[in-house]
Amino acid sequence: MIPKIPYVIYFIGVLILVLPAFLATNANKKVFFRNIATWGVIFIIIIFCYQAFNS
């Protein structure tokens, strides 16, 4: 559990920094959901790479 705590804190920090600009540039719902899906895929890839290299 301890190794995952810094990872979650970093993610929340980046989310707080990026979220206002992200919401301002994605006024259209279609664009917003496409961008959310893209960032979700990127996030999942980062998680898998992180776990693969630390296993």
Show the helix and strand layout.
Blueprint: H1 4-25, H2 29-54
3D architecture notes:
The protein is an all-alpha fold. It has one domain. It has helices at 4-25, 29-54. The two termini are 14 Å apart.
Briefly, what is this?
The chain is built from two helices and no strands.
Total number of strands: 0
Number of helices: 2
What is the share of helical residues? Answer: over 70%
Q: Give the SSE order as H and E letters.
A: HH
Specify the structural class.
mainly alpha
Largest sheet: none
Q: In percent terms, what proportion of residues is strand? A: under 5%
Mean pLDDT: 85
Q: How far from one another are the termini? A: 14 Å
Note poorly predicted spans.
none
Question: Main attributes?
Answer:
mainly alpha; 55 residues; flat; 2 helices
